[in-house]
Design a protein that fits this description.
By secondary structure, the chain is mainly alpha-helical. Helix content is 84%, strand content 0%. It has one domain. It has three helices and no strands. The radius of gyration is 13 Å and the shape is elongated. The two termini are 14 Å apart.
Length: 56
Amino acid sequence: MKEFLKRFGIIFILAGIIVLAYAEFNKMESNVMLMISGGLVLLGFLFYVIFNNILD
């Protein structure tokens, strides 16, 4: 479980990248998908930094 929590942020970062790729390949003109993917990447980065500092 400890190893999963250490890599929990990477899952959010990858989800953000997938959302961004989906929006790009479908030529969506809305910025909503961009905000969602940016939020996921930022949240994943914060989770990654915080969990790795707490668990080490």
